[in-house]
Amino acid sequence: MLGGSIAALGAGMVAIGAGVGVGMVAKGALESMARQPEMAPKIQVTMLIAAALVEGVALFCAVICMLDK
C-alpha cells in the first residue's frame, strides 16, 4: 500500500524537476537569442534537443517510479 503512494510522490517530483529543467533551458536560450539574434535558429534547435533530452530522462524516471510497487 505504501509503495503506490511513494511511487506517486516520486512521479510528482519527476514532473516538477522536468518543468524546472525545461524552464532553465528555455531561459538560457532566450537570453542567448536576445544577445545574438543572428544565432537564433541554431540556438533554437539546440534548445529543442536539450528540452527533449530532459523530458526523456523525466519519462524514464517516471516509469521507474511507477514500476516500483
Itemize the secondary structure elements and their pairings:
Elements: H1 2-35, H2 40-67
Notes on the protein architecture:
- This protein is mainly alpha-helical and 69 residues long.
- It has a single domain (2-64), classed as F1FO ATP Synthase (Up-down Bundle), CATH 1.20.20.10.
- Helices cover 90% and strands 0% of the residues.
- The protein is built from two helices and no strands.
- Helix 1 runs antiparallel to helix 2 (40-67).
- The protein starts with a helix and ends with a helix.
- The model has no long low-confidence stretch (mean pLDDT 88).
Number of domains: 1
**Rough outline:** elongated
Indicate the low-confidence ranges by residue numbers.
Answer: none
Which CATH top level class fits? Mainly Alpha
Give the helix/strand class: mainly alpha
The strand count comes to 0
The biggest sheet amounts to: none
- Rg, rounded, reads 16 Å
Oligomer: single chain
CATH level-4 homologous superfamily: F1F0 ATP synthase subunit C
Features:
single chain; 69 residues; mainly alpha; 2 helices
Give a short overview.
With 69 residues, this protein is an all-alpha fold. 90% of the residues lie in helices and 0% in strands. The protein has a single domain, classed as F1F0 ATP synthase subunit C (F1FO ATP Synthase, Up-down Bundle).
